[in-house]
Amino acid sequence: MEGVSFVVPVRNGAAWIRDTLEGIFSQADGRPMEVIVVDDRSNDGSSALLRQLADVWPLRIIAGDGRGAAAATNAGIRAAQFPIICQVDQDVALQRGWMRLLVQELDDVSVAAAQGHYVSDPAATLCARAMSLDLEQRYAAIDGQDTDQVCTGNAAYRADALRRVGLFDETLGYGYDNDLSYRLRAAGYRLTFCRAAQSVHCWRERLGGYLVQQYGFGYGRLDLVAKHPRRIAGDSVSPAGMMVHPLLMSMAVAALLTAPVAAVAGLGWRPLAVAAATLVAGLALERLTAGIGAARRFRDPAPLVFPLLHLLRDLAWVAAIVMWSSRRLGRVPTTPSHSMRPRRLADGIRDLGFGIRGGAKSQIPNPKSRVLCLIPVHNEAATLPAVVAEVRACRPDLDILAIDDGSTDATAWLLERGIVGPGTNDPGIRTGNTIRWLRLPERMGIGSAMRAGLRYAARLGYDAAVRIDGDGQHRADEIDRLLAPIDEGRADVALGSRYARPHAERMSPLRLAQRLLAACLSALTRRRVTDATSGFCAVGPRAMRVLAEHHPTGYPEPELRLFLSRNALSVVEVPVRARFRLGGTTSLTAGRVAAACARVMLAIIIVPFRGKVELAGE
C-alpha cells in the first residue's frame, strides 16, 4: 500500500487540535503514515499543546513563518515523504474510514484530488449548524462524482500533481484551494467528491465570527476572480446562484444610499427605495425557500434562519467588495491576511451563535462571575501540561487550581518547577503565572481532593467551580456549556453526561454496570440519570458551600448524586462528548461500578446515606 502524509496547518487551534489529531490517527489501517503539523506562529497555547501531544502521538512539528494557510500547507507538502497527501484543517474531525475511501479515489491515476464530505454536528450552535447545512445542501446539488473544486481541510491529493502545478498560491487567502483546483483541472486532471468519506467541521459558532469569516470569503472570491475571470459564475461548490446574491445586495445598498440624496435634490426617491426593498425581499424569499427545503431534507430547523443569516452574509460580501475595490484603486498588493485572519480565541469556545441552543438561553459566560477550574490529579505528569494548555486556550479567564492527590510520579516536580512560580502566604498553596496548586500529604481519593479544592474556592469567594480531570478525557471547550445553567440560576450543580444523547455504543461489562448504576440512581433520586460516573461538573455557590465540607469520598461520583438529591440541591445533566484519556489507565472497572451500585443501594435501603446538612446563612 502507498504511504500517506497528513499535513495540518495550525494557527491558534488549541481548542480543536487534539480532536483533529485523534481523528487522523484513527485512520491507521496498516499502511505507512506520517502526520506533519505546521505551527504557523500560534499565540494561543497551541505550540505548548502540540509539544505535549507529540509525546502521545508520532508528530512532526514544523515551524511556519506566519505568512498564511497556503504557505504553511506548502511547507508541510515539501516536507512530506509519501506520494499521497491528505490535508486536514486544525478544526476538522475525521470519521473512521475517511482516509481509506479517499485513497481509493486516487487509485485512478487521472484523479489528482478527492474531497470528503462535511457533515453537520447536531450539538453545534444554531449559527454553526445553519452554515454546515447550507454547505451540505450545495453538496447535494453536485451531480455525480466529478467536481471542479476540492476544498482543502478535508481532501487527499497526489503529491506529484501538486508539484506539477506549483503547489498553492501563497499570495491568496480564502480561495487558495479553489485556485489550485482550477489549475489542476487545466492541467488535465480529474477532481472527485466522495460522499462516504465524512468529517465534522467546527464552524464559527458566534454570529460575529461568522460574519468576519464571510467577509473573508467574499474578499478571497474577488482575488480569485481577478486571477480566473472565467470563474465569475462560481463553481460546483459555490454555484452561480450564490455568486449573484452579493451583486444584487450591492445594487440594493446603492439604491438605498442614493435615495436620501435624491430626496434632498428634489428628485424621485421612491423608485429607488422600492427597488432596494424589492431586491432585499427577493433575496430573502429565495433563501427562505432554500431554508425550508434544507430543513425538510435534513430534518433540522436550523436552515429556517437562512433568510436572516444569508442577508447578513450578503452585506459582509458587499463590505468586502468596497474594501477590495479601494485597495485595487490604491494599488495595494494582495496579501493572504486581507481575507484570512486567524480565528480569535473566543471562536473556539462552544457558545451561542444566535442565543439559542436546544431551547436554552445564551451560554455566553457571565463576565462578572469568578470561576475556579479544579483539576484533581494523581500520577498524571504526562498529561497535565496538555490539559492546562487546552483550558488556557478555551477559557483564559479562568483561575486554575491543581490538587495533587499524593502523586508518586513527576507530578509534584512538574508543579513545583515546570509550570508554576513563587508561592503565596497561604500554607500549602502555590501560585504561578499558569496555575495554582496544592498537595495532599498522601493519597486520600478524588472526593477528598475535591473537598480541598472547593474549600479553597469558597474561602476566596469564587462564584462557581468547574472540575476537569487531569487525564485529558474532558473537553475544555465544553466548560461554557456546563457553566450556563449555573450562570442562569437554573441549577446548583451541572453534571456532564456522555450518554444524554442517544447514540450507538459498544456494550461491555463496564457499560452494563454503568447502566445499572444509573438506573438505581434514577429510581432513588426520582430524576433521570444517564451518566452516573462522570466527573466533569460545574458547581454553583450554594452547592460549593455544602460540598466544601461534605463532598462524598467513597465512590464520589454516584454518591454525589444522592447527596445532592437528599439536600435539595438542583442538578441538571448537560450533554458532553466522550473521548479517550491522553495517558494512564482508568480506575473505573466493572467491579468498582458494581460495588458502587451495591453501596448506593445498601446506604439507602438499610441505613441513611447522609443526613441533610444546613446551609450556612440559611
Number of domains: 3
Rg: 27 Å
Helix content: 40-55%
**CATH architecture term of the largest domain:** Alpha-Beta Complex
Shape: globular
Distance between the termini: 70 Å
Beta strand %: 5-15%
The fold-level CATH name of the largest domain is Spore Coat Polysaccharide Biosynthesis Protein SpsA, Chain A
The count of β-strands is: 16
Low-confidence stretches: 345-367, 420-433, 603-611, 613-618
Q: So, the CATH homologous superfamily of the largest domain?
A: Spore Coat Polysaccharide Biosynthesis Protein SpsA, Chain A
Strand order of the largest sheet: 3-2-1-4-7-6-8-5
Helix/strand structural class: alpha/beta
The mean pLDDT is 84
Number of DSSP helical runs: 19
The biggest beta sheet is recorded as: 8 strands, mixed
Q: In CATH's first tier, which class of the largest domain applies? A: Alpha Beta
